[in-house]
Write a structure and sequence with these properties.
68% helix, mainly alpha, 126 residues, globular
Amino acid sequence: MESKIIVNTGGGSFEGNNVGGEGNIINNYKSIRQNEQTLAEAAAEIQKLLEQLEKSYPATTTVGKMAIATETISQIDSNPTLAARILSALQAGGISAFEQLLNHPAASFFISALGDWQSTKRQISS
């Protein structure tokens, strides 16, 4: 027995086939919500770091933006708990999701550095 399932979530919907009358759509929804929350929390922490570092480095110059991005990556890298949360959020939503959630003049520099940092972490763990 196969039936089509469509669930509207308010912010989108997901579709799937329910084969044999049993499925895990509810668990998938919970997982998606948890991933969104993880991503939002990680982005908020990064946003806070960017804003704090703007007090030490000018966000109006290219060099200042690069310094903010570099120092943000350095602070993430030196905090294993934060680094693990960021990596988890990257797995959940990817770098493009961070791009959409961050609102800071140095965000594009940070996103570039984040991609490199993530690649380095993957190589180390392999």
